[in-house]
Amino acid sequence: MAVLRINGESHDVDLPGDTPLLWVIRDHLGLTGTKFGCGIGLCGSCTVQLDGEAVRSCLVPLSAVAAREIVTIEGLAESGDSRLFDAWLAEQVPQCGYCQPGMIMAVDSFLRATPAPSDAQIDASITNLCRCGTYPRIRRAIHRAARSREAARDEPGDETRD
Length: 162
What we know:
- There is one protein chain.
- The protein starts with a strand and ends in a 9-residue tail after the last helix.
- The protein is built from 6 helices and 5 strands.
- 38% of the residues lie in helices and 13% in strands.
- Helix 3 packs antiparallel against helix 6 (135-153).
């Protein structure tokens, strides 16, 4: 039995160690915001954060995540920091919405490591696929979120994850 730490809560999971984290999250814990896309780690729809780093959960076996902190889109949404979500909506990024949870998880991790990214850094780092092709909007939303987070860092009492 594995004990997982997901979105700040402990979960006992009795599954084979080679079970992909994606299926643990979706099928066994009922956190369906993380999406199945390709199953081979290319599309990014299944992106979650593992110890703060964006990973493709379809490629991560259950045996690799014990005693590590996992954050899903549900956990990020509950974090109290809506700036990335607000930027996403302001730039009208969502079309069909399927890729959005994975994209947002990747961008959140990226912005914590690269708080003021250039277009080239965004293009090189955000490799999730968007079926609707909203990449220009995604780039604008990333810049908007970066500016918003930077402004918030200067505010007294800001207690977000940044």
